[in-house]
Amino acid sequence: MNFLHAIILGIIQGVGEFLPISSSGHLVVIPYIFGWDYQGLNFDVALHFGTVLALITFFWKD
Fold first, then answer.
1. In terms of DSSP H, where are the helices of 1-62?
2. TM spans, by residue (predicted)?
3. What gap in Å lies between CA 9 and CA 51, rounded to an integer?
4. What does the alpha-carbon distance between residue 27 and residue 44 come to, in Å, rounded to a whole number?
5. Contact yes or no for 31/39 (Cβ under 8 A)
6. Residue among 52, 46, 62 nearest 17 (CA)
7. Which of 18, 30, 36, 47 could lock 13 by a disulfide, CB 3.0 to 4.6 Å apart?
8. Would you write out the chain's pLDDT as a tens digit for each of its 62 residues?
9. Is the pTM of this model over 0.85?
C-alpha cells in the first residue's frame, strides 16, 4: 500500500465513521474493488485510533 492509498482509506474512514454505514467494511471492500493489497488489521485499528484522537482534540474544551 502506498501513501495515496492510505490517504484515500483515511478519508473514507473519517467520513464513514459518522454515517450509518460500516466504515470498517469499507476499509475491507474498497481495496478489494480497486485491486490494492489488503492493509491488515493493524492499519484498520490505526485509522480508528486516528478518528478517536481527532474527536478528542475537537471536543477537548467542551
1. 3-16, 23-34, 41-58
2. 7-34, 40-60
3. 12
4. 7
5. yes
6. 52
7. 47
8. 789 999 999 998 888 888 888 888 888 899 999 999 888 889 999 999 999 999 999 999 87
9. no
| Total domains, the chain | 1
Residue 5, all three cell numbers: 492509498
- Structural domain that includes position 27: 3-58
The continuous run of DSSP H or E covering 19 comes out as: none
Residue bearing cell 492493509: 39
Residues 6+ apart with CB under 8 A from 9: 27, 30, 31, 39, 43, 47
User: Which amino acid is residue 35, in one-letter code?
Assistant: G
